UniProtKB/TrEMBL annotation:
Pfam family, one: FliX
Matching InterPro entries: Flagellar_assmbl_FliX_class2
Phylogenetic placement of the source organism: Bacteria, Pseudomonadati, Pseudomonadota, Alphaproteobacteria, Acetobacterales
Record protein name field: Uncharacterized protein
An individual GO BP term: bacterial-type flagellum organization
Location of the region described as Disordered in the Swiss-Prot/TrEMBL record: 1-30, 105-125
Domain of life: Bacteria
């Protein structure tokens, strides 16, 4: 029978939110290295961008310009010194990459569907 490891008693990891990022900023600003301040701001901005995409989709608006912003943000994720902040930045990047992949796949399906519909209209009956 397998032995339980130490992680069995840990609660499941929750999602990364602006509130959880605030918990990492409990150190005084003078003790918070510049790299981590930049990473904290990046994380907060990236989460806001993800929320903006979600809102645009819920309202039926195009999220293309927001997607471009998110792609740029993911390419420019900053280095961090704090291990907790490093984990948060990594989790945000993964979440953003998953959302970008889903949205690109949906866009490709929409484009293919429109192309198929136009092809069907062009064919003689």
């Amino acid at each position: 029978m397998a032995q339980p490891d130490e992680t069995d008693s840990l609660p499941p990891a929750g999602g990364i939110t602006g509130t959880s990022l605030l918990g990492l900023q409990e150190e005084s600003d003078s003790d918070f290295p510049h790299e981590d301040k930049v990473a904290f701001i990046w994380g907060d901005d990236t989460l806001k961008t993800l929320r903006a995409i979600q809102l645009a989709l819920l309202e039926g608006r195009s999220a293309n310009n927001i997607l471009e912003t998110l792609e740029t943000m993911c390419r420019e994720s900053p280095p961090t010194l704090n291990p907790g902040l490093t984990a948060a930045v990594r989790a945000i990047r993964v979440r953003a990459a998953v959302e970008l992949a889903k949205l690109h796949k949906a866009e490709a399906r929409k484009t293919a569907s429109e192309h198929d519909r136009r092809s069907d209209e062009d064919e003689p009956a």
